């Protein structure tokens, strides 16, 4: 168990700072103050972040922290926290770790016993959800679908029976193909397609997938897709387990299976990947 009382200890801290997704006026006073006060800022792309810092006259040192240098960046940050430094983590827009680098670092910082503190701000998923006109709860944030069409189809097949509203991110050059696959697999549902949120050319399109496909060629920019949930009743083949994954694995181990075979069997029974079961069991 990890119990963190963020402001009742003197531990070095990693601040996870949300930054504007377009409109710079969405930067909070607290975020500006935090970025001024930390020893340095770990940024997804220093070229983008320096523009933000210059706008708010923040002179704090920047280092790179992106998906291609994690093996170097994470040990450095952990070492600097051990030396008593406070560090801020930012991505290019919105929250770090939400479809952006950050999760791996946060996990390691927690493991080492330091504070991880969120600094609130803009989020494209929630912005799109609350203006979509589609039921905002319950909802599932999925983020980006796989780039490979075959894998993307499998993902959508798994999601099509979910009754929750689902929020996706998609790149402009893939949006048309993604909508066609959604129409083919999930049916002609009501969706909201939001682009350039908080920016000058913000556009929120509400209608069916078919209607959206008729105008999609005119749209550019990063997209957020809010898709209504399925109206079909969940079928009997959906199994709800009354025990946790860890308890399920332990049950098979008690029956004489090795840990490896127990994890494999639980993954098969639950319809999960072995990696998911393995990671869940070994983090207990």
Automatic annotation (TrEMBL):
Its main location: cytoplasm. Pfam families: TP_methylase (PF00590). One of its GO terms (biological process) is methylation. It comes from the Bacteria. GO terms for molecular function: methyltransferase activity. Residues 13-212 form the Tetrapyrrole methylase domain. NCBIfam families: 16S rRNA (cytidine(1402)-2'-O)-methyltransferase. This is Ribosomal RNA small subunit methyltransferase I. It comes from Allocoprobacillus halotolerans.
